[in-house]
Amino acid sequence: MADEKAEAKVEQAKGKAKEVAGRAVGDEEMEAEGRAEQAKGDARQAKEKIKDVFKH
């Protein structure tokens, strides 16, 4: 489970980096991909938090 949380954080960070890079070079597609990766990481993190709530 800790791996899932770590993976979510990595996905969020990669997405943020891609979004910033896309914005810096004017690549709207890359920026959108970055936002999508962040959202995927956010969803994964939320899923893990819900699991923790019901586990305790």
Structural commentary:
The chain has helices spanning 2-25, 28-55. The radius of gyration is 13 Å and the shape is elongated. The chain is built from two helices and no strands. It has 56 residues and is mainly α. The longest helix is centred in the last third of the chain and has 28 residues, at 28-55.
Q: Give the rounded overall mean pLDDT.
A: 93
Largest sheet: none
Supply the number of helical segments. Answer: 2
Structural class assignment: mainly alpha
Order of helices and strands: HH
DSSP summary, beta strand count: 0
Silhouette:
elongated
Keywords:
56 residues, mainly alpha, 2 helices
List the helices and strands and how they pair.
Layout: H1 2-25, H2 28-55
Summarize this, please?
The chain has helices at about 1-25, 30-55.
